[in-house]
Amino acid sequence: MKDTAKDRQEQGSKAPAEPRSLWRHRDFLLLWSGQTVSEMGSAVTQLALPLVAVAVLDASTFEVGLLTAAATVAFALIALPAGAVVDGRSKRSVMTVCNVLRLLIIGSVPVAAALGALTMTQLYVVAVTAGVCTVFFDVSYQSYVPTLVGAGQRMDANSKLGTTQAFALLGGPGVGGGLVAAFGAAGAMTADALSYAVSIVTLSGIRTREEPPPARREDETLRGRIAEGLRFVLHHEVLRKVVACTGTANFFGGMATALEVVFLVRELDVSPALTGLVMAASAVGGVLGGVFAGRLAARIGSARIMWVSTLVFCAPHIATAFASRGWGVLLFVLGYGMTYFSGMVYNVAQLSYRQSVTPPELMGRMNAAVRWVVWGTLPLGGVLGGLLGSLIGVRPTLVISLIGSWAAGWFVFFSPLRRMRDVTD
């Protein structure tokens, strides 16, 4: 049979066959390995940065609270313009620049401490500027994955990357504690700075060519580009339900997060030394969720899994509220473990869906708009959780937060996803 020009054209226009396993995908493995090291480094800094403030600079409780807020304020302030900027740039280039800057920013802390010049002002600047870089990196990172892997691999890729995040949550504090004990709080942050160097090297080794961003119109403004991304998310029949679900779950999750340590220490009489162990044991659920997210989506359906994970898998997390002293603490581990498990499965599924339905030229702005909304509800929930905990008690407030985060799943259930088994591109 002759290979005609028409045949060659049709072959070139067809989607390639289902790609090989990601375990043999060189470029994805480079991205994944670099991000794994970086996530572990970031987990070390989450522990070490406030310890530097307390142990080295003798900061007050209020100053430490401000430092924690400074690390996350960038998500509320610049997430939307970050998406517009990222959509007009090479995603890999943005990630590389962010990692170079974070290496210098985080690395300035141990250097200043060694010179005896470290101040709280520097820590605030480090927290804010590193947070800005993290916003740009995260928006680029989520937008870059669909460029690197095929549509059939997105769920698997996001599952593997989610497992890395959960593993960092599980093992990062322990590694950080060991580094703090060995090198001091400021010295431990050197590990995070070096982790960005590893990520820079792995990103530079990726060979997949990224499609250049579309040319901007002459009359196009930053405000207009931001508005275009918001309109896409809010006018999309499913995406706005996903945002409502995630934002609501994060709001009530923020309430629970504000109370979890108080609940363990004061209500369940868990010692401060064992509190970290209990939280680490609960985080195993997130690791398992990342490992099994792809398999569960294949069996249940990549669309159906979004509401099944929130309404079915998440339901046992109510056990948290029934935890008691002694062996009853295991109910806390079970409940929070299911929270982490169901949350990871849901996040992998909803991120894969978002990547499937969003045009490439809007990917950055879509991710930024979603993050701006869903991350913005976390501090609001934390404030309300602390207030209600003081007014009606910790356990009743925890019950409200657990029921509320579970009920958020009804947003995605009452959407077109209910009638779909799988996501189609």
Strand content: under 5%
Query: How many β strands by DSSP?
Result: 0
Distance between the termini: 33 Å
- Element-by-element helix/strand order: HHHHHHHHHHHHHH
* Dominant shape: globular
Rounded to the nearest angstrom, the radius of gyration is: 22 Å
Mean pLDDT, to the nearest integer, reads 82
Q: How many distinct helices? A: 14
State the helical fraction.
Answer: over 70%
Provide the low-confidence segments as ranges. Answer: 1-19
Which structural class should the secondary elements be placed in?
Answer: mainly alpha
Largest sheet: none
Q: What does it look like?
A:
The chain is mainly alpha-helical and 425 residues long. 78% of the residues lie in helices and 0% in strands. The chain has 14 helices and no strands. It has helices at residues 5-13, 26-56, 61-87, 91-114, 120-148, 154-204, 222-235, 239-267, 272-300, 304-313, 329-357, 363-392, 394-407, 410-413. Helix 2 (26-56) packs antiparallel against helix 5 (120-148). The longest helix has 51 residues, at 154-204.
